[in-house]
Amino acid sequence: MEKKALAIIIALSLLAVGSTSYVALATSPAPASDELLVENVKFDNAVLVGAHKGDLALVAYGLIAYGRAHTTILAYAFAFVGIAEAQNETVVAYARAGNTTWANSDFHVIEQDGRPIGLAMGFRNSGPLYVEFSEGYGESGYYDMNITVVLMAFYHPGLEETVLARVRRGDNSTSLIAYDVHGGVILAAAFKVEGWPSELEGTHLVVGFAIYLKAFSWVGKGHVRANVVAVSPFCGSTRPRLERESGLIRGTFAFVNRAIVKNGDSEPEVVRAFCLYQVSGWLLKLGIIVPKADVVAYPARRG
């Protein structure tokens, strides 16, 4: 799988231009509109907010965290950006999420043991998707396929993030401060792809996501506005990393290393999934890599 990393990085670049059970949304997706949908869940010293508007598979999730000496907002733009097909070190096809129309559900409050722990929104394409094939691998054009994506945010009280901010002290001086935010957001995604048009064998699908973070800070007794310089562990840069095991990636994205695939009339099969990500500044580009099949569902439900 490591030999495919170069192709996956290229695929992510192409797409970027342009202990809980997973949630099955009870409501069918409704046509996207310009209506602003907002939902929030309150926790001790924090509020998790979800917002969506428009016709893209994108949700803005925000955490408003209160401390004795700060109020901090961590706002995440969490988007499904598309699908690519990779063979060895070659990207043979890709489809950007913006090349179709999307319908979305309302926000769904995720609960565990009767307590709210997060929010989710589901998306489903409501028209054909344009697939761009590399020369010699297929015919580019619009194809009918079914794609469902669920974008989720969970609040985890045990997480801790360090905020580095610059505060103005007088007319011409500033000082650099650092403080910890207790509690944080875990972002997770589920998806199902049916009818990807390629007939090539031995290839993998790369389902791409992008996460953009914007942070706001008010510090001190007077709630003085501070200019956030960095948020650790999310903000920074790293070399591309292939994640084989289930876990958290930089404290932000929940990754499960199992998917379900089905070909024709055969029985569904549980297969290994992989995750490759790149971080640059406030942007995380992430691809979940699964074997291609007639139907691909991620993540596999726990047995």
Topology record:
Elements: H1 5-16, E1 30-31, E2 33-43, E3 46-54, E4 58-66, E5 70-87, E6 90-96, E7 102-104, E8 108-112, E9 115-125, E10 129-133, E11 141-143, E12 146-168, E13 174-194, E14 204-219, E15 224-232, E16 236-243, E17 247-249, E18 253-255, E19 258-262, E20 269-272, E21 274-281, E22 283-291, E23 295-298
Antiparallel strand pairs: 1-7, 2-3, 3-4, 4-5, 5-6, 5-14, 6-10, 7-9, 8-9, 9-12, 10-11, 12-13, 12-15, 13-23, 14-15, 14-22, 16-21, 17-18, 19-20, 19-23, 21-22
Using brief descriptors, characterize the structure shown:
303 residues; mainly beta; 21-stranded antiparallel beta sheet; 1 helix; 4% helix; 65% strand
The first-to-last residue Cα distance is 26 Å
Major sheet, described briefly? 21 strands, antiparallel
Strand content: over 45%
- Global Rg: 20 Å
Which spans have pLDDT < 50 for at least 5 consecutive residues?
Answer: 18-28
Tell me the series of helices and strands, N- to C-terminal.
HEEEEEEEEEEEEEEEEEEEEEEE
Looking at the chains present, what oligomeric state does this protein adopt?
single chain
Structural class: mainly beta
Tally of DSSP helical segments: 1
| Number of strand elements | 23
Q: Characterize the overall form.
A: elongated
